[in-house]
Design goal:
By secondary structure, the protein is of the alpha+beta class. It has helices at residues 2-26, 35-61, 68-98, 107-162, 164-180, 182-201, 210-228, 251-262, 300-312; strands at 208-209, 232-237, 246-247, 271-277, 281-287, 318-321, 325-331. The two termini are 44 Å apart.
Length: 336
Amino acid sequence: MKTAAYRFFLKLLIACMIALLFKVLFFRLDELFGLDLIIISIVVVFLWEGNKKIDGWLNEKYSWIAYPQKRLMAQSIAFMLFTAITLFLLMYTLHQIRFGDGRLMDRKMREVFVPAQFFALAFIAIYVGYNFFNSWKNSLLEVEKYKTQSAEAQLQNLKNQINPHFLFNNLSVLSSLVYQNQDKAVNFINELSKVYRYVLDNKNAELVSLADELAFLKHYTYLLKIRFETAVDFSVNIAAEDENRFLPPMCLQVLVENTIQHNEASLANPLRVKIYTHDHALVIENNIQLRSDKVSSTKTGLKNITSRYAYFVDKKPQIDNDGKIFKVVLPLMIQE
């Protein structure tokens, strides 16, 4: 409450100072104080708040960082029109208070209008410049924040792939295959190498195409199918037009890994994982069969995916759990 009152008082004080400076420049000294000084102060506050509203509305349409040229043009036109109309109404009101002759424009108004417009726009330019600098500074902070989160995600993905459990499980499968089916063992080694290759190749990537993620998923699920056989069933149905859209790397691997980690899978009760696109979004869902030996979950993977998406789009990943089906919906992006 005190902060709001302080801001209002400060804004009013600045408006009075601007109004006083305006009168010193464009009116006689014997006319320095009067009713018009109050009117000018009110109009300064009105211009301030009005242009602030315009600035907020334009922030939603054209950000300074993403569309600097469009934003500069739109803001300049909007500010100039709003300021010109408001100043004209101010001057017309002051003229009618003084003379009451009903004329829209007289000589004094013509002499003052253009300088007053530049005077107002000079203050607005300072305000716009301040906002642009803040937007630029905030964007740099967002970039650094994303880099940190991306690095953490890359590190976590590498840890997931080279952790002892992952290696132990796959090496155990491989050792069995070597004795049972050498051709399949060779294929298993090739697929395992492709999984690691994808992780290393994309460790610095911000976005990858859905087509690349699906190609990686094919290698990753091959390893899982060898390990679980028909206890895990993968169904993939992707619209062709969505394969060229983008998402953060390793999202599919994280979600599939979560599905395997938290659910039981058996030949009698297979775990069914469906991956498909709907309305230009990627959907990953599975039937819920919680493990009897529940694995503690920090939800780090889901949180990290949500954080990485926040850098690129306003639309967040959607997570639904109705007790029977667990579903994650990832927005797919168009890379400009």
